[in-house]
Amino acid sequence: MLKGSKTFAKDFMTRHNIPTARYRNFSNYEEARNYLAEVDYSVVLKATGIAAGKGVVIPSSTQEAQTALKEMMVDKLFGSAGDEVVIEEFLEGQELSFLSFVDGYTIKSLIPAQDHKQIFENDQGPNTGGMGCYAPTPIASKKLVEDIHRTILIPTVDGIRKDRMPFKGLLFTGIMVTKDGPKTLEYNVRCKAIPSFFTPNYVMPII
To answer: Are 25 and 86 in contact (CB under 8 A)?
Structure first.
């Protein structure tokens, strides 16, 4: 459910005090439309279900947000994935991707990679499932990585156990490093959706 439902994942983060963007979940189109008209911050729209990496829209205006919301919830651009939608605060910063091995109690991570998801150069254009990433990255200082483990990754594993959702395997965590500290964007528990990590010396595909 952490991957299959973005609404579930956001509620999980809130329940376990894991830093994330402000948000509201909606299954009613009119309520979501009214919320978009009133919200006082830039937003991101996320179809709750799996949409082949295309279910996230970063609108540049209220009108663009309203159009995207209608396409998701009314026109069913992403099918049943758009039955529920997360409307969340747009976070500014640099994105890190963590791949972590979990045994149900402890978590050990590979070196984080810096992720770029917009389709064109200089972070322009529509959001994608991931145009590329590289590691190691200079923004992932030792202190920052320790902070992310302490405030996000360890609480995630503890929360999974407390909620009685047994999980052993590879956990992907997408994180935005903002001026207010690291915040969680999303989880992924499917190896096949995870990109290769690139360094000048080698390519390490996670398969």
So the answer is: yes
